Amino acid sequence: MSTRVVIGAQWGDEGKGKIIDLLSNKVSVVARYQGGANAGHTLKFDNTTIVLHLVPSGVFHDNTECVIGNGVVIDPLALLTELEEVRSHNINPEGRLFISESAHVIMSYHKVLDQAREKSKGDNKIGTTGRGIGPAYVHKYSRNGVRMMDLLDAEVLRTKVEANVTEINHLLEQLNCDEKLEANQIVKEMLEAGEKLKPFVCDTGLLLHNAQKAGKNILLEGAQGALLDVDHGTYPFVTSSSPTSGGACTGTGLPPTAITHVMGIMKAYCTRVGNGPFPTELHNEIGEEIRKIGHEFGATTGRPRRTGWLDLVALKYACRINGINELAVTKLDVLDAFEEIQICTAYDIDGVQTDQFPLELKKIEKVKPVYTALKGWNCDTTKITDKEALPQTVKDYVAFIETYLEVPVVILSTGPKRKETLFLQEVH
Ligand code: IMP
User: Fold this and answer.
1) Cα–Cα distance between 104 and 251 in angstroms, integer?
2) Residue 37: closest CA among 7, 74, 12
3) What SS3 class is residue 32?
4) pLDDT (tens digit per residue) in 231-244
5) Which domains does the chain have, with CATH numbers?
């Protein structure tokens, strides 16, 4: 029996969707625990590409139940569109998708506010996805939020929306935004969405508790990545939730004692989308080549991702704050063509070397990465189907990561398809 948290160990976009999809046939329940439609999990199989933003990546396995936990912020309209997309692939979510009644709702005003705030910040903007994530979490924590259960109660919904719209119209005025929100229209739209989503809404904490009690395998799916965590990431250039493994408990209602494994997903190199520090970023033709070969464009916004070499200092920090005890390395094939591969093993800050990730923004921005060069493998790894057939150079690269991080690499992913995966160790 396992309850495994799968998290992004970098700045998001590590390829979690593919790994979660692969592991889903070993589990009975997959639950999302934070974030919202800012995430984009890309799945590729049977010549189809599907990008999921809210529905857990387990939905394409018939026997897997999918949960959207209480820690997620749900845009009901985006979710309804996504359910249509899922249905168009002959998947019926009825009876298999469960949405927490306590999950907070992203209202249209959160999206308007997110975009207006970003615009007002000029050069200092975070580079959010504009999906209303921050404002929805602000309302949650200031105790003005609308929860999924409120979409099923017209009176409660109207009271909350009217209060929020008055406040947000004031804010928009201050931000020089011309848009004026109208409560009636919002209430109507949300009640309609609530009616359509009603069959899925329930107490998902209880569902997960019962699944665990029954000895079922559970997978808790993180979105974004550890370095975008609101507490532990590169604040303020972070998202507004807790993608780290601790968030899996508050975001589902399962207790810390329930967690048996924490799998960190890491790319063979690094990317970041949006603004904020990125010590190993490459502003040269190598960075451009990685972006091109790795198709590094945001799954949600289409923005080009910033690219750089693998950063083991940042990853060691991610291993520490998440308790990662198994790693999956993705997009190994993107480095196939490189003669030499650089790995950052220390930071130089004002002439002093450290292997500890600094928390102060000014310090992170000063970092000069110290690299160790490894020989590239210069072969097509997508064709390798047996771990024994891996070239020694790839084995050395994996061993280098494992030794530095003191965590085993259990999965190597060499392409977007399900079959382009090597299990270096069995995953139970
Ligand atoms: P927000 O989550 O839309 O508020 O954006 C905050 C920061 O997190 C921005 O830098 C976004 O680019 C980044 N971000 C949000 N979601 C993702 C994701 O799924 N992958 C990578 N970056 C993300």
Assistant:
1) 11
2) 74
3) strand
4) 999 999 999 999 99
5) 3-100+201-261 (3.40.440.10), 104-196 (1.10.300.10), 266-423 (3.90.170.10)
Give the dihedral sign, CA 250/254/257/261.
Answer: negative
pLDDT of 71 above 90: yes
Residue that is written with structure tokens 């069995």 in the block: 426
Q: Catalytic: 13?
A: yes
Do residues 315 and 9 touch, judged by C-beta distance below 8 A?
yes
Q: Give me 319's structure tokens.
A: 């291993």
Looking at residue 285, its pLDDT comes to 97
| Cβ-based neighbour number of residue 238 at 10 Å | 23
Distance 376 CA to ligand 1 centre (A): 31
Q: How far is CA 81 from CA 53, 85, 87, 188, in A?
A: 10, 6, 10, 18
Residue 364 pLDDT > 80: yes
Q: What average pLDDT does range 68-96 have in this prediction?
A: 95
pLDDT-derived band at 183 (thresholds 50, 70, 90) equals: very high
Q: How far is the CA of 378 from the centre of ligand 1 (A)?
A: 33
Ligand 1 neighbourhood includes 234 CB (under 6 angstroms) = no
CA distance 414 to 424: 13
Residue 185: its pLDDT value, please?
97
Residue 223 phi, psi (nearest 5)? -115, 170
104 classed as catalytic: no
Q: Give me the pLDDT at residue 298, please.
A: 86
The HSE-up count of residue 266 (CA atoms within 13 Å, CB side) is 34
